[in-house]
Amino acid sequence: MGRYVIRRLLQMIPVFIGSTFLIFFMVYALGDPVAAMFGDRAPDPATAARIRQELLLDQPLWKQYLHYMGQIFRGDFGTAFNGQPVTELMGTAFPVTLRLTLVAIVIEIVVGITLGVLSGLRRGRALDTSVLVFTLVVVSVPTFVSGYVLQFLLGVKWEWVKPTVSTDAYLNELLLPGVVLALVSLAYVTRLTRTTLAENARADYVRTAVAKGLPRRRVVTRHLLRNSLIPVVTFIGTDIGQLMGGAIVTERIFNIHGVGFQLYQGILRQNSPTVVGFVTVLVLVFLFANLVVDLLYAVLDPRIRYA
Amino acid sequence: MPDKTTVTPSSVAGAGPGQTGSGVDVSAPSVAAASELASMGGVNKPRSLGQDAWRELRARPMFWTAGILLVVLILMAAFPFLFTGADPGHADLRNHYLGDPQWTHLFQEDWFGYNKQGQSVWARTVYGARASVIIGICVTFAVTVLGGFLGMIAGYFGGWWDALLSRLTDIFFGIPLLLGALVLLQAFTHRTVWTVVLGLTVFGWMQIARVMRGAVITQKQADFVTAARALGAGNGRILLKHILPNAIGPVIVVATIALAGYISTEATLSYLGIGLQPPAISWGVDIASAKDVLRDAPHVLLVPSTFLSLTVLAFILLGDAVRDALDPKLR
């Protein structure tokens, strides 16, 4: 196990370097951060040259990248163009998004797996059909549509919840945004659970369990569910990274000042240090989430052993 | 869109068990498939993958629902003037600012009311279909070609090629589609449909590449490949004539399902202001400008949203149907 973890960690290094360099390239080589600083007006050439030199932007790209990476390992993510250190922005943004993601994941797990199990055990019945239709509808409606519609209905028209989230982003305020963020993945979790459950229900070990006279409840929870949830866990694990990056739309709709909000502002204003810094952290989160999922595999499925 | 699925059959076709004289053949899997078919349908004449898929598809109400939706949608994208005589760009602030829908005026200019600029919501919705359809289909095509090519190289040649291309896939996988497309597209000040296609393709090919690689690795060890090589076929011929027709099934499935996602992502990009730009007419652009008047005139947001969702739904249904038809194991 230990050797496997080390090997995986080593494999992560080139991927990490590649992904961050890709982002670095797109932001610094394709875009023009200095021109962006001046907005719509053309910068004074002398000033622009001075800023370029200060920010090392006159160096070749690989040198800039090495310099940037060197700073990151000292905990310095640079300074956003408004003078605020990027780490400070991260300090306020990541806890908010983390909470939002947690709410979304919990909803995904509880509602998604429940619906999936219910419909998987009753394949072909009315409940199964309605759950299937529900997942199809949910998957078809893009997040920004469902977000605005739910915000309008629940927040503005019926006034059940507050339509926007305050700067502190308390958990109860994050409930509706959490639902919106979770919706699409929730539908996938439901369908995945349903399919694997229905597949495994025909397996030999289930027949054996039924044949030895175990109560249905025990067959389902101990034998069927435990084996069926393995792909679901994989999906949820990889979804964590996706959700944190994908919160751009949700955070914009509900005015949540999290990672997605900062990233979007950074991209709009071509605030290069913010964009590169945040994406770097997101890539790390994504890579580690994948590693944890692979390790969880061995816990859930004793047949898998990592040497 | 049945032609999407029948693209393969012509290349897979023929090669039944009796036809071995022509030297190289694709019969090995076809024999297996044929015997399966025979036991399933009670038909003795072997059918190709495409014919089999088409039979499966025809029997599904889901496929026909998706098909009808898609025909309407494609007509709308190709000939918008068939659906509305109104000009989507014509704005009349004086009379029509946020005019309410007139539900009885079917297909008229004021059927779904007017937006903030006094433009007909129905006309804009009809004309907005084109961007979504073009982007969805072009990205899927580009992604299939690029991802399919890289996956084929990685799977077939293995070794260094595989190691290199697999790491490249991992690198692009580390950046979510929406995020990567956002960062890439912000570098372009003037964005057209083709820039958006480029942005989505650059960060969309990885899944196809992985699926193709897996399929090619499985097929590579089949007897018919060894036979073809023994008969002196080169790498190019083996790949294109023998492995590709047998490996393309799962790729088509993944591509069809992904199509819906690309349409949704394009709308999201346009909504965020980093996809298509006004005066381009697109559902995403219209929804973005409608959100500010949601309280007073929800119809301006709901009409394009409904059409967008129906489009995504149609492609998802098609994807599901194609998957069930092409990949019996996933059923």
TrEMBL record, chain A:
Keyword presence, Signal: no
InterPro entries per the UniProt record, alphabetical: BPD_transp_1_N (IPR045621), MetI-like (IPR000515), MetI-like_sf (IPR035906)
Membrane topology: Multi-pass membrane protein
Keywords: Cell membrane, Membrane, Transmembrane, Transmembrane helix, Transport
Membrane-spanning intervals of the chain: 12-31, 98-119, 131-154, 174-192, 275-300
Domain ABC transmembrane type-1: 94-297
Cited Gene3D superfamilies: MetI-like (1.10.3720.10)
Pfam families named in the record: BPD_transp_1 (PF00528), BPD_transp_1_N (PF19300)
Entry's localization field: Cell membrane
PANTHER family xref list: DIPEPTIDE TRANSPORT SYSTEM PERMEASE PROTEIN DPPB-RELATED (PTHR43163), DIPEPTIDE-TRANSPORT INTEGRAL MEMBRANE PROTEIN ABC TRANSPORTER DPPB-RELATED (PTHR43163:SF7)
Family: Belongs to the binding-protein-dependent transport system permease family.
Protein name per its UniProtKB record: ABC transporter permease
